[in-house]
Amino acid sequence: MSLDLPPVHDDLAFLAPLSEQRAGVLVDFLAAGAPSTVLDLGCGWGELLLRVVDRVPSTRGRGVDQDESALAHGRELASARGLADRVGFESADIRAMTEPADAVICIGASQVWGDPVETAGPLDYVAALTALRSLLPRGGRLVYGEGIWSRPPTAAATAPLAGRHDEYVDLGTLTRLATDHGFAVLGAGEATLDEWDEFEGGFTAGYARWLLDHPDDHPDADEVRGLAARQRAAYFQGYRGVLGLAYLRLVAL
């Protein structure tokens, strides 16, 4: 029987290390292009997508993911904000998307365009950027968020990830890959430690709330405590400050 843990959207506004301030910058960037259509690939519950559509009254949005729980939450948010008639959420393979959009959001989803995750190979940024460029007209805008190394990886950092030092590249290399594959870089940065700490705290908060809501001798309590402990160790004794998340603001050339 799988654990009935609280959904992560109970504790996170964004399914990424992303502050309100940075989210505002990204929304401003996308909205400045006055897009008629915005596509969010690997959208989760589509918080950024909803904010862009809310900002630009003529915009229509489409969020694509395969997490039914997250998509359902996105639909609830759209309805609550009066956006259900302009934003749709669907379960689909984002690799099958061929219909172009004026603006695209893709944060933390590049792995779908590479080798199967089970192979634990390096992230294929080139395949992702190539696929994303094919969805945009010249002048179209892309918010591309993806994992990078903030500093040279260590064995402790890679152990809870894919276990390899070449899984990610650094920020400079990623910006070069973007310019080599059809984009101009209008802005590039990476999540701060504060953003990461907030994200990791929200990501694991469900374990704590589950433990508060169940007796210590519950049959699943040891498993939940173990999950929480492993995630804390992976972050604080592992990849904190080493694994980063880049945010690129790109325009298609």
CATH architecture of the domain at 11-149 and 163-192 and 245-252: 3-Layer(aba) Sandwich
Q: Could you list the spans in which at least 5 consecutive residues all have pLDDT below 50? A: none
Gap between N and C termini, in Å?
50 Å
Compute the number of strand runs.
7
- Per the CATH scheme, the topology name of the domain at 11-149 and 163-192 and 245-252 is Rossmann fold
> Which geometry do the CA atoms define?
globular
Helix content: 25-40%
Order of helices and strands: HEHEHEEHEHHEHHE
Average of pLDDT:
95
Number of helices: 8
Structural class estimated from helices and strands:
alpha/beta
Strand content: 15-25%
Just give the CATH class of the domain at 11-149 and 163-192 and 245-252. Answer: Alpha Beta
Strand order of the largest sheet: 3-2-1-4-5-7-6
In CATH, the homologous superfamily of the domain at 11-149 and 163-192 and 245-252 goes by the name Vaccinia Virus protein VP39
Radius of gyration of CA atoms, rounded to a whole number: 18 Å
Give a quick account of the main beta sheet: strands, pairing sense, barrel closure.
7 strands, mixed
Considering the chains and any ligands shown, give keywords for the structure:
seven-stranded mixed beta sheet, 253 residues, 7 strands, globular, alpha/beta
